[in-house]
């Protein structure tokens, strides 16, 4: 009889491409992964891994069994979802991820509400940017992730996933308080054609959105500083080192050194929850989505 947890370990190695990646995805040690695989090899009487340079790769037997493991685990998850749906109870563990401002702006209220309404539900959270969050959901290492796109740059929905809209998040331009435009009621992005910008890291969806949006207006952005965290960006703005786009979700109070001015043609991020289609019947997933949507109601633009 094949052990389900050992199949889960093999599946994780196949998906992550390494023992260390599997260990990180399963939240266990690399030693625990190696032990589970060694036991599985003894059970089936064949070698599943072989050395490949400094790493490992699956043998033909390992690849064959990992394909079966993926299908078996998908069926097990579907069975669990059906049982949960049939019972109608919000119980067990649910692993959720979100990008930083959503985690700061939504998770505290949402998880507090879930704890009060569903004491038998254990919510485990992690902070991930949207693209890694989607990958974690697709891999099965996360049950639900909060992701985003922009009103003028939409993100496609990956095959095998569902999503639900949570809220629209309005973004302003943040500029030094002594900037000539700081007293305006509204501004246009064109007003900052000659400014230095503080942006997100290259390759991130929000950075690509900023470049796309400014270039569509005939502006070649002068990216002077790059920071992943919004409040690091705002600290750079406060020091007079540039301007940035500042979404309102998760924004903490700032001092008098930064002014936030709305954009005349409103700039919005669309915030979604996304999960695997075969998990959509789980009451815990529906409960998390509803709690996140409720937490976002006072914040929606």
Q: Give me the secondary-structure category.
A: alpha/beta
Provide mean pLDDT, rounded: 89
One letter per element, helices H and strands E, the order comes to: HHHEEHEHEHEEEHEHEEH
Provide the helix percentage.
40-55%
> Which stretches are low in confidence, meaning pLDDT under 50 for 5 or more residues running?
none
Q: What integer value in Å does the Rg equal?
A: 23 Å
Main sheet: strand order: 4-3-5-10-6-9
Beta-strand segment tally: 10
The coarse overall form would be elongated
- By DSSP (H or I, 4+ residues per run), the number of helices equals 9
How many strands, what sense, and barrel or not for the largest sheet? Answer: 6 strands, mixed
Distance between the termini: 55 Å
Content of β-strand: 25-35%
Structure in words:
The chain has 301 residues and is α/β, with parallel strands linked by helices. It is built from nine helices and ten strands. The strands form three sheets. It has a six-stranded mixed beta sheet, sandwiched between helices. A two-stranded antiparallel ribbon has the order 1-2. The chain has a two-stranded parallel sheet with strand order 7-8. Strand 1 and strand 2 form a beta hairpin. Helix 1 packs across helix 4, helix 2 crosses helix 3 and helix 5 crosses helix 9. The radius of gyration is 23 Å and the shape is elongated. 35% of the residues are buried. The model has no long low-confidence stretch (mean pLDDT 89).
């Amino acid at each position: 009889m094949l052990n389900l947890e050992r199949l889960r370990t093999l599946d994780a190695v196949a998906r992550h491409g390494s023992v260390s990646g599997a260990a990180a995805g399963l939240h266990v040690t690399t030693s625990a992964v190696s032990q589970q695989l060694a036991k599985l090899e003894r059970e089936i009487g064949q070698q599943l891994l072989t050395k490949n340079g400094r790493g490992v790769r699956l043998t033909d037997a390992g690849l064959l069994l990992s394909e079966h493991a993926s299908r078996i685990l998908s069926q097990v998850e579907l069975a669990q979802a059906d049982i949960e749906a049939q019972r109608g109870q919000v119980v067990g563990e649910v692993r959720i991820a979100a990008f930083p401002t959503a985690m700061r702006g939504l998770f505290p209220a949402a998880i507090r509400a879930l704890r009060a309404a569903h004491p038998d539900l254990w919510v485990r959270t992690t902070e991930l940017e949207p693209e890694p969050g989607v990958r974690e959901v697709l891999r099965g290492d996360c049950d639900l992730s909060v992701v985003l796109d922009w009103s003028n740059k939409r993100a496609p929905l990956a095959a095998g996933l569902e999503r639900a809209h949570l809220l629209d998040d309005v973004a302003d331009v943040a500029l030094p308080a002594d900037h000539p435009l700081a007293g305006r009621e509204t501004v246009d992005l064109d007003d900052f054609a000659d400014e230095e910008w503080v942006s997100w890291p290259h390759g991130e969806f929000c950075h690509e959105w900023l470049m796309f949006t400014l270039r569509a207006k005939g502006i070649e952005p002068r990216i002077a500083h790059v920071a992943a965290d919004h409040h690091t960006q705002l600290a750079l703005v406060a020091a007079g080192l540039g301007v940035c786009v500042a979404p309102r979700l998760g924004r903490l109070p700032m001092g008098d050194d930064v002014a936030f001015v709305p954009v005349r043609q409103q700039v919005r991020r669309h915030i979604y929850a996304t999960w695997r289609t075969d998990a959509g019947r789980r009451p815990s997933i529906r409960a998390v989505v509803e709690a996140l949507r409720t937490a976002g109601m006072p914040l929606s633009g």
